[in-house]
């Protein structure tokens, strides 16, 4: 089914037509329509137009109103102040527009006008290292943007650029050669925790030996050379570390209720074969130059504390490649082989300078241009309740698994508290506890603008009150409960009915869903979707307080129409939360 035009776009079109008819000399002027507290909408465009036409704004506004033909959409238009138009929509138009949305499985949300191919680089853990709280935001924000862009009709290619290469592997592989059973498993079905425990133990032992034994250190350095030159035995042992780490990564992503597929995991090593050619192209084209033996790219606007230019080092003076060579090779691969026209990097804001330099280098090389562009979706830091970077009491970085387990435990207690009243089984309590706990963590992250830091406060996150996912999940479950109680009475739209103020407010907000999603997909700002859903749940709460849905006092068509409103609200909540990667249990 085709997308459903929002009431705002319908009103915008009516006003634009009236402006052209009443003031042809104005050309195609924008009515500047926005939501208003005084009416449903306010149009402010005539004020600027009056200055341009040197006319009286109130007179021009009156002229425009006179040019609007009688219709079923606009109930009243009032000229106020210096030519503002306060516009009220008919109840019939609200209900009919919502009925059209309800008839569409996509709720009338439009696809992008010109969908393209986006590669999203997110959730980038490091091989043989534990995932910590710092890995949370990239995973959660990236996963939500993948879902939102796919819903908008974009072809999305996921890329998990894991840290799977570097000098530390010489030490790890050499230790494994000398202690061959360190990564053995007790049985075939190995857990993520056991895999990480093996890797942790081996890493600590290898590091201790490396720091204390000069001969082992020398053997480890030789092993790096063997790895980089493609020695088969060394590569096979390196692969064991990658595979062991993936068991752990996937267990964490599974806990986060995120789907990660093997072909999407293309680490630093995936671009090794391209590094030499990338450097050659940059040097031959003059984009990169030799400086003190290193291959560098310089920028006029990037200077260090001493005022001297800070270069992007593509190849070190000792012949080793830096992160820049890998990142630039990844851009080449994503543009030339995957056919991407947009590259989105969900990466910590502290890496902004690096990516600014990498993107500018790629532009100079011609890999990025007017048709192909790259965006860093930069995110801030996760802070503790004290407003400082989140650490354990011992000053260690918080393990991501511990954080998620605690969230699930807290949420399960909240669910259990209400379980008897709703009649949940033990299995439902455990399952819902997981959905509520993980949803709470994701929503706290996604409801904050990505670029800002946010405080990780589990007490607040699993609260039933305030701007939390639990509040939204309970709103959804509450509607499902009402629909079950309605029995044989089905939701049905009745455009002939007049609407109470709370019904109108809920209806007008429901109608904005498509516009919000279009905005979020274009600006890469999932917090705007979270804000919309919270406002939707708030409108729903007001509606409950003021308009009883199931009541013998109400006429059957009133009950059906109110059921229709809450049912569409439930579907909108369910779809919106799913795009944020959050489950909505039917009973809570």
Automatic annotation (TrEMBL):
<feature type="domain" description="DALR anticodon binding">
    <location>
        <begin position="472"/>
        <end position="588"/>
    </location>
</feature>
<keyword id="KW-0547">Nucleotide-binding</keyword>
<keyword id="KW-0436">Ligase</keyword>
<dbReference type="InterPro" id="IPR001278">
    <property type="entry name" value="Arg-tRNA-ligase"/>
</dbReference>
<dbReference type="InterPro" id="IPR036695">
    <property type="entry name" value="Arg-tRNA-synth_N_sf"/>
</dbReference>
<keyword id="KW-0963">Cytoplasm</keyword>
<keyword id="KW-0067">ATP-binding</keyword>
<dbReference type="Pfam" id="PF03485">
    <property type="entry name" value="Arg_tRNA_synt_N"/>
</dbReference>
<dbReference type="InterPro" id="IPR001412">
    <property type="entry name" value="aa-tRNA-synth_I_CS"/>
</dbReference>
<dbReference type="GO" id="GO:0004814">
    <property type="term" value="F:arginine-tRNA ligase activity"/>
</dbReference>
<dbReference type="InterPro" id="IPR009080">
    <property type="entry name" value="tRNAsynth_Ia_anticodon-bd"/>
</dbReference>
<comment type="subunit">
    <text>Monomer.</text>
</comment>
<dbReference type="InterPro" id="IPR008909">
    <property type="entry name" value="DALR_anticod-bd"/>
</dbReference>
<comment type="similarity">
    <text>Belongs to the class-I aminoacyl-tRNA synthetase family.</text>
</comment>
<dbReference type="Pfam" id="PF00750">
    <property type="entry name" value="tRNA-synt_1d"/>
</dbReference>
<feature type="short sequence motif" description="'HIGH' region">
    <location>
        <begin position="125"/>
        <end position="135"/>
    </location>
</feature>
<dbReference type="Pfam" id="PF05746">
    <property type="entry name" value="DALR_1"/>
</dbReference>
<keyword id="KW-0030">Aminoacyl-tRNA synthetase</keyword>
<dbReference type="InterPro" id="IPR014729">
    <property type="entry name" value="Rossmann-like_a/b/a_fold"/>
</dbReference>
<dbReference type="InterPro" id="IPR005148">
    <property type="entry name" value="Arg-tRNA-synth_N"/>
</dbReference>
<feature type="domain" description="Arginyl tRNA synthetase N-terminal">
    <location>
        <begin position="9"/>
        <end position="89"/>
    </location>
</feature>
<dbReference type="InterPro" id="IPR035684">
    <property type="entry name" value="ArgRS_core"/>
</dbReference>
<protein>
    <recommendedName>
        <fullName>Arginine--tRNA ligase</fullName>
        <ecNumber>6.1.1.19</ecNumber>
    </recommendedName>
</protein>
<keyword id="KW-0648">Protein biosynthesis</keyword>
């Amino acid at each position: 089914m085709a997308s459903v035009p929002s009431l705002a776009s319908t009103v915008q079109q009516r006003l634009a037509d009236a402006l052209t008819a009443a003031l042809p000399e104005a050309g195609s002027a924008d009515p500047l329509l926005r939501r208003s507290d005084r009416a449903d909408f306010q149009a402010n465009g005539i004020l600027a137009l009056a200055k341009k036409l040197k006319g009286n704004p109130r007179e021009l506004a009156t002229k425009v109103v006179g040019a609007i033909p009688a219709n079923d959409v606009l109930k009243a238009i009032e000229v106020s102040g210096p030519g503002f138009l306060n516009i009220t929509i008919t109840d019939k138009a609200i209900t009919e527009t919502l009925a059209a949305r309800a008839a569409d499985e996509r709720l009338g949300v439009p696809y992008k006008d010109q969908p393209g191919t986006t590669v999203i680089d997110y959730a980038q853990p490091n091989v043989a290292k534990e995932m910590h709280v710092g890995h949370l935001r990239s995973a959660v924000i990236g996963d939500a943007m993948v879902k939102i862009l796919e819903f908008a009709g974009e072809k999305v290619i996921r890329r998990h650029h894991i840290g799977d290469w570097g000098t530390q592997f010489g030490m790890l592989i050499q230790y494994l050669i000398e202690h061959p059973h360190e990564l053995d498993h007790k049985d075939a079905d190995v857990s993520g925790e056991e895999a990480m425990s093996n890797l942790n133990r081996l890493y600590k032992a290898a590091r201790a030996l490396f720091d204390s034994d000069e001969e082992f250190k020398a053997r480890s350095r030789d092993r790096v050379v063997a790895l980089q030159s493609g020695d088969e035995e060394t590569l096979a042992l390196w692969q064991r570390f990658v595979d062991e780490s993936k068991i752990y990564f996937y267990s964490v992503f599974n806990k986060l209720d995120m789907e990660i597929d093997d072909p999407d995991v293309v680490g630093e090593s995936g671009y090794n074969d391209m590094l030499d050619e990338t450097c050659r192209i940059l040097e031959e084209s003059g984009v990169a130059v030799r400086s003190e033996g290193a291959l560098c790219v310089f920028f006029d606007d990037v200077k260090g504390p001493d005022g001297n230019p800070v270069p992007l080092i593509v190849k070190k003076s000792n012949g080793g490649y830096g992160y820049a060579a890998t990142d630039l090779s990844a851009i080449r691969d994503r543009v030339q082989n995957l056919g991407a026209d947009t590259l989105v990097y969900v990466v910590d804001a502290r890496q902004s300078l690096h990516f600014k330099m990498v993107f500018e280098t790629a532009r100079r090389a011609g890999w990025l241009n007017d048709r192909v562009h790259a965006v860093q979706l930069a995110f801030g830091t996760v802070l503790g309740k004290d407003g400082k970077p989140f650490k354990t009491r011992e000053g260690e970085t918080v393990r991501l698994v511990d954080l998620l387990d605690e969230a699930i435990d807290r949420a399960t207690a909240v669910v259990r508290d209400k379980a008897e009243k709703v009649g949940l089984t033990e299995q439902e309590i455990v399952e819902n506890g997981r959905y509520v706990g993980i949803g709470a963590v994701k929503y706290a992250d996604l409801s904050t603008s990505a670029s800002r830091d946010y405080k990780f406060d589990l007490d607040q996150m699993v609260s039933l009150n305030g701007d939390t996912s639990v509040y939204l999940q309970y709103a959804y479950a509450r509607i499902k409960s009402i629909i079950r109680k309605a029995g044989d009475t089905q939701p049905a739209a009745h455009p002939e009915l007049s609407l109470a103020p709370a019904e109108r407010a809920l209806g007008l907000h429901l109608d904005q869903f498509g516009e919000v999603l279009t905005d979020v997909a274009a600006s890469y700002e999932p917090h705007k979707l979270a804000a919309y859903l919270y406002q939707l749940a708030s409108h729903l709460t007001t509606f409950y307080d003021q308009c009883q849905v199931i009541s013998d006092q109400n006429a059957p068509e009133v009950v059906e129409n109110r059921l229709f409103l809450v049912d569409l609200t439930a579907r909108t909540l369910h779809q919106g939360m799913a795009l944020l990667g959050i489950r909505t249990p039917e009973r809570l």
